[in-house]
Amino acid sequence: APRRRVAVARVVVALALCAVARAATSAHATGVLVEDDGRSGARRADVEVRARNRETDTEDAMATTTSSEANDEDARTEEEGDEDEDAVETVDDEDAVETVDDEATTTKTTTKTMTNVEAAAAMRTATPRRARALTTTRAAATEETFEYQAEVHRLMDLIVNSLYSNKDVFLRELVSNASDACDKLRFSALSDPNAMGGNEELRIKIKGDPEAKTLTIEDTGIGMNKEDLVSSLGTIARSGTAKFMEMLQSRSDGENLIGKFGVGFYSAFLVADKITVYSKAASGDDDKTWVWESEINASSYTVKESEEAIARGTKIVLHLKEGCEEFSTGEKLSSLVKTYSEFISFPIDVWAKTTKEKEVEDKASTDALKEAWEKKKIEAEAKGEEFTEPEPKPVKKKEFEQVEEWTTANNDKPIWVRSPKDVEQESYNEFFKSTFKEFLDPLAHSHFAVEGDIEFRSILFVPGMAPFEQQDMMSKSKAIKLFVRRVFISDEFDESLLPRYLTFVRGVVDSSDLPLNVSREILQESRIVRVIRKRLIRKTFDMLRDIAAREGDDYDTFWENFGRNLKLGVIEDADNRKDLAELLRFTTSKSGDDGELRGLDDYLNDMPEGQNSIYFVAADNKDAAEASPFLEKLKQKGFEVLYLLDPIDEVAMANLATFKEKPIVDASKEALDLGDEDDADKAAREALAEEYKDLTDWMKATLGEQVEKVEVSNRLTDTPCVLVTSKFGWSANMERIMKAQAMGDNRAQDYMKGKKTMEINPASPVIAQLKKMKESGVAEAADNCQLLFDTALLTSGFSIEKPSVFASRVFKLMTAQAAAAASGDDTVTPEIV
Which of 210, 448, 497, 685 has the most other CB atoms within 10 Å of its CB? Predict the structure, then answer.
């Protein structure tokens, strides 16, 4: 019986909710009538019909829910405690009905209420308890759709002061717009021969007026009528070029169009506080010239018919800001055109001062000649002789003067857009020297084009010499000049297009697919950039292989200038490490006196039978490397050894690790593999180790923590002993380099220092004498052992931590020898070398 009461209560709640929905619907309909009195009657009727349909759906859903719950109640058998909880829920439901009624009453008095659609949807999808929770809250406000709004003044401020970091780019943007206007007219003329209006010339003119503080950019392109001015210049971020390109999607003619963001025009406010635009459309019914004008802090603009008529195209007049007067001088404007717009396909004329040569009369020289001629004439007449010499002509001299006139600032043609077979080598050399300010011809070039989903053209050069500021080359590299449809964008893209170890390469990339930010100053990461980068790296390696394959010293010249860059690439670029390894060159034990550079392929080709590894030793110079005791056995066996003489070499070889399946081994590290060893050699080596085991154990005990262990060496033939390091620690050379680092971390030295192993040469008389001294119990044996260790430090490339102690041991030995010689004792302690 209690559960049936609960079911009945829930039915009551459901009916109450239906009533609330009806009330909300009525209130909403009233609100709609009040707020939208101007709407048509058909619209109101449609709203009411849909509301009634929603109410019917809600009632059906509630009835179904109630019936289902009643059936469930008959099937349930619960404990008494659960019945009490249901009773509490029933009370809560009744309270909720009261609350809902209050809310419904309040809703009737407001015009903002839950819509009948929302109420019905909530009732259909919610359980009774969920429906109760929904209705106990205040009904949600009517959903409305709004358009984004913007403060024009603030938006313009962001465009001018945030998008661009360099004022100079304003001219690039305006010239690009002018170029697009000329291109549009050229395209239009293909379908409309009258578009040109009898004037086939397409040009861009730039003129500054320092006195009036104005700058004028004029083109003879397609021009704009009044509607174009309003839609293109009056709508921020609307690109007329982008719309034009959409019309040309099925044609390839639009590939030279530049603009696409629709904000480049407003970059003029970087240098101007007022912009006036005169424009006349090339075709159409409107043959008037219109003027568009706006100021930097204004949120509006004006358009009116111009009193000044122009033949065709657009003329932009910038009223320069205080402090921007330099942009009205011809020298500055010519420089900017050369930098950013040198390869625009239309001629760009700049009003600038040029130096002209002219001939003028040299009055002093002319007077001198005339004076001499007259003197001769007088003398002849005095003698009664006939004088027939003609009077001298005025003497001319050359003078230079500054003349203001129109000069074309973009005479150079972009050779990368031409086919490589149509470009001569001399043209490549001249382009390289003029574009990158070099004075030597490049060692190699690569001219190529990529077509398909991603299209770009490029020319890469390998310079003939390293720049003088090579130490800053990688941090301030301007290796690749990036163009978008022949307009220079930037040459400061860090490692986006080339890794830093290839920053010595110079080149041009021109693409219309590059994902630039709006200011065109930042190259954004994308698949296109990765594809271009990969292709540039591959083409660079092709050029370097071509240089390496040439006869002569071209590759030696390259290696002298840029070899360290390739070693850096071995460290940083794991993906291309194999290609870089083939380009490495080293001085080796077979280089001879002339220091011939040899590659790893040459090394492998000359490897004798039985050699399994590629050996190297690091040193400060070639002489030190040749004198290294680590190489004694290797030289005896005829194994070639690479001399690593640059500080970066050892790190590069550690990263390379192998070359064509041959391990690269440091000859100064422990467990040196000397190639194939037969059973007899192995047995002899093990017998020597056993014979000298007592000595090596004693030496280890004597030296203590200074060495990890002492063992018999298989790499020495003459030197008494050496110190080798563990395979995974620093070598002596690397330890010295790391100590010399000004900003090095001294804490790293504690765990990166290689553990030292002392290897002794049993064939050395010094070791034989030490063995006898130890077996005889001579007191000086321990001092001699320590002195052997100190000398091994020096010959192995380490530094002695306590030089004074080492010196005292040497003096002590010398004193003992002197005393023995003075007393006539024939027993002399052998000198340790």
Answer: 497
